[in-house]
Specification:
alpha/beta, TIM Barrel, eight-stranded mixed β-sheet, 232 residues, single chain
């Protein structure tokens, strides 16, 4: 596994659990607002976290941490992800996987393994603006729809979420966005925050409080339990 970093404690990334978050490097998308450029297109090999160091940390946290969140980058790019997850599970931790959903076959394989306890998929935008939002001309959105269906029928706990950023999103988009995952138990909006480590990012800003409230209201018409992340 190519690991880019470790957050040793999080009370937010895995709902209801005390967890750590491990970051994989590499991503097939180039979302201009992505806050982890150092994991996507500014990877410094000498700064990678050795896998044995990660598992040494986990061993010391058995009985202290409940779970491990695997995020990125895009974890499903890693060829040994299944083995990595299985090893974490064998140590008694619950596993949450974050994915952009662009590799549905890999998502299905991992969820079918029975080793993932929760999966979160980023829903980037309405289908007509997906390519622009992920920074990939001609991006195949059929893969996104396939992953949505796989996740929803997997029997694994799941959530969908959208990072909300201007000018890529408008409040009126969120009814259509919510319809893509209508009937899901959880849908979260996350307002953009400039981390200072953006993939491109010029001109990217958060929605105003008023715009975010309107986006939330539009999504709630389709998924009433939609929430703004951090305000659960």
């Amino acid at each position: 596994m190519r690991l880019g970093g470790l957050q040793k404690l999080t009370l937010l990334d895995y709902p209801g659990l005390v967890a750590c978050t491990v970051f994989t490097v590499g991503c097939n998308m180039r979302c201009p607002f992505c806050q982890n450029a150092s994991l996507v297109n500014r990877i410094e090999e000498e700064n990678l976290l050795p896998e044995e160091e990660f598992f040494s940390f986990l061993k010391k946290r058995q009985g202290i941490l409940d779970g491990v969140c695997i995020t990125g980058g895009e974890p499903t790019l890693q060829p040994d992800l299944n083995e990595f997850i299985a090893k974490i599970k064998s140590m008694g931790f619950k596993v949450k996987l974050d994915t952009n959903g662009s590799f549905p076959d890999k998502v299905k394989e991992i969820l079918d393994s029975g080793n993932v306890d929760m999966v979160a998929m980023d829903l980037k935008n309405t289908l007509d603006r997906y390519a622009e939002t992920v920074g990939i001309p001609g991006f195949d959105t059929s893969k996104i729809l396939e992953s949505i269906n796989i996740i929803r029928s997997s029997g694994v706990e799941y959530e969908f979420r959208t990072t909300v950023v201007s000018p890529l999103h408008r409040p009126e988009d969120f009814g259509e966005l919510a319809k893509m995952v209508e009937g899901s138990p959880r849908y979260f909006l996350q307002n953009f925050v400039d981390s200072g480590d953006l993939v491109a990012g010029e001109g990217m800003t958060a929605l105003t409080e008023e715009e975010l409230k309107q986006a939330l209201a539009n999504a709630k018409e389709i998924i009433p339990q939609t929430k703004i992340r951090g305000e659960e």
